[in-house]
Amino acid sequence: MFIDVLVERIEKVGTPLCVGLDPSLALMPSSFLDRFGITPDTADLAAGAEALFHYNLQVLDAVADRVVVVKPQSAYFELFGAHGMRALERSIAAARDRGLLVILDAKRGDIGSTSEAYARAYLAKSPPRELEVDALTLSPYLGDDSLSPFFAEAKRWGKGVFVCARTSNPGGAMLQDLQVDGRFVYEIVADLVHEQGRAAMGASGYSNFGIVVGATVEEQARRLRARMPGMYFLVPGLGAQGGALSTLAACFDDRRLGALISVSRAVMYPHLHGSAGTALVDAIRAALAGFSEQVRGAVRGVV
Amino acid sequence: MFIDVLVERIEKVGTPLCVGLDPSLALMPSSFLDRFGITPDTADLAAGAEALFHYNLQVLDAVADRVVVVKPQSAYFELFGAHGMRALERSIAAARDRGLLVILDAKRGDIGSTSEAYARAYLAKSPPRELEVDALTLSPYLGDDSLSPFFAEAKRWGKGVFVCARTSNPGGAMLQDLQVDGRFVYEIVADLVHEQGRAAMGASGYSNFGIVVGATVEEQARRLRARMPGMYFLVPGLGAQGGALSTLAACFDDRRLGALISVSRAVMYPHLHGSAGTALVDAIRAALAGFSEQVRGAVRGVV
Fold first, then answer.
1. How high is the pLDDT of residue A302?
2. pLDDT score of B22 more than 80
């Protein structure tokens, strides 16, 4: 099942980093776009989608033997319509060809049979679908019965889900940090996932059902870690959003596991962070190495 | 702008009904699927997507001169991957060719530049995209700054958004009905949309920014209607989910406007509700006529 493969590979490769695939034409080097004959605001969606896919290939080639999992962000593909979704399908296949696990960051959530359709689209193994991934992110505003179809489908196929509990953005506080009868909303969500996740425990001691916790919210991360043994946290917000290493450390448990640290644009676009003159793949590897070292330091500080 | 066109057409056509496009192979007549040589669990995603599109065409032909707006549900298209998204693009084009407005029900929501990418994918007029629609549904769990990019893009192009406030499912209560300092969470969300929507008011007296309110939650609908003058409600839950006419009535304001009542499968699949032997288009029209009469009755009861 997803979580056991994830944990086994993390222990083998030695880093809990996840590389986000947020392909944005506006952030790619103009020399790269030139190869496709486009500018960032191109109306040629087929060519734009082709550029997304080929940029992802470079990132995948650079990181494949250094991390165990990548996280494509659906929005950047949807921006190119059906062409973009085809680029997403091809990117998923390319990641798998390189032995990587894939978490699709789509923050889906709806009611009844609509949630069922989303769950089948991304988590079912049969009939085979090119958008099938290993795990999917979910948004919980519509409540427990909106998540049930995802839990059921994930259980059926041994897949993972990560439900947004406390996200990394400042506005995350608006609803998620509200407190009712002594529990924060992010805890209410996490409690539900934790309880449901008992039916999806792996041999690793972790559940296939996890939560999203931002690297920017240290107090919430500490509370959640203490409350949620055996639950994996998907942790975005390092890099561009300024997440602190002490918050990362708070996300790990006493096995020095339990957290998957996601870095996206700071790794994907190293030329925006002072790597001019270096080949893209080398610059991506250097950026990734820097983050790996930081995260290893944070993990070592845990116990 | 979206809301003014919507209101003008609703007054002209005389019904506030919106037909949901939830194309599901499992609910289509087997004789229809036979034309595409597939069964409901086909692994041929291209043929499946073709069936979705052609079923939608029948629904659109049946309803185009009787309602003003349709609401495709993204999940059912995503289930067929890139092929499905192409079917969605073609369905949007077919709806527009028939003079219909299109609300995409996708319940998107993410942070910062990811929300920006979603907003551009569905709401921007330039560069032209085949997924461009008139309005988009949003999910607010990630808070105010997760919605801002959608508000900004909608404002820029005169488009609409409908943010989930109180949804029609029982589980909607879990987070949405929590009360903090005298305000329910669904009110906190609605207040934000209402406030932001002041900057997107149309000549009709309504804002381009509305909320989703289920036809199954009468008390919440009454509270929201009283609190939110000048705001349009997108109201699903009539038909399959058993929404009551008194709740529908509660969603309208004293102009007998302010609510868009969405019916999906009870109109799309009349053969499941006892129309055997009738041609599909005729059966769809009959089902729609029944709902129109019910809703007109509810609206007449308002003032």
1. 64
2. yes
What's the one-letter identity of residue B286? Answer: A
* Residues contacting A30, CB < 8 A, separation 6+: none
Place of tokens 């308002």: B302
**Facing residue for B42 by CB, picked from A79, A127, A172:** A127
Mean pLDDT of A164-168: 97
Contact B78 A173 (CB under 8 A): no
- Contact list in B for residue A172 (CB cut-off 8 A) is 111, 142-143, 146
User: A72: which 2 tokens?
Assistant: 């494509």
Instruction: Count Cβ neighbours within 10 Å for each residue of A228-252 and write b for 16 or more, e otherwise.
Output: bebbbbbbbbbbbbebbeebbbbbb
Least confident stretch, A65-69, A104-108, A298-302:
A298-302
Is residue A73 pLDDT above 90, yes or no? yes
Complex ipTM value: 0.97
Residue A271 has pLDDT above 60, yes or no: yes
What are A135's strand-pairing partners? A103, A160
Query: What pLDDT is stored for residue B207 in this prediction?
Result: 98
Which of A108, A110, A137 to mutate to probe the B interface, most B CBs <10 Å? A110
Q: Quick one: what percent of chain A has pLDDT higher than 70? A: 99
Token digits for A69? 């999992």
Query: In angstroms, how far is CA A151 from the centroid of its own chain?
Result: 18
pLDDT the model gives residue B238? 83
Q: Which pair of structure tokens corresponds to residue B14? A: 């005389």
- B86 to chain A: nearest residue by CA? A82
User: Is pLDDT of A20 > 80?
Assistant: yes
H helix or E strand, kind and range, residue B210: strand B209-213
Nearest chain B residue to A142, by CA: B172
Question: Residue A91: what residue type?
Answer: S
Share of residues in chain A with pLDDT > 90 (%): 91
Task: State whether residue A146 sits within 8 Å of chain B by CB.
Answer: yes
- Inter-chain residue contact B131 with A171, CB threshold 8 Å: no
Q: What's the pTM?
A: 0.97
Q: Could you tell me how many CB contacts below 8 A there are between chain A and chain B?
A: 216
| B71/A contact by beta carbon, under 8 A | no
Instruction: Give A-chain residues touching B185 at CB under 8 angstroms.
Output: 175, 178, 185
Q: How far is A11 from chain B (nearest CA, A)?
A: 31
Structure tokens belonging to residue A225 = 């870690």
Q: Considering only residues 172 to 191 of chain B, which have any Cβ-Cβ distance to chain A shorter than 8 Å? A: 172-176, 178-180, 185, 188-189
B68 within 8 A of B13, measured Cβ to Cβ: yes
Annotation marks residue B125 as catalytic: no
Q: Is the pLDDT of residue B6 over 90?
A: yes
Strand partners, A231: none
Task: Please check the confidence at residue A47 and state whether its pLDDT lies above 80.
Answer: yes
The lowest-confidence range among A116-125, B83-92, B150-159, B234-243 is B234-243
Q: Is the pLDDT of residue A85 over 70?
A: yes
The helix/strand/coil state of B14 is coil
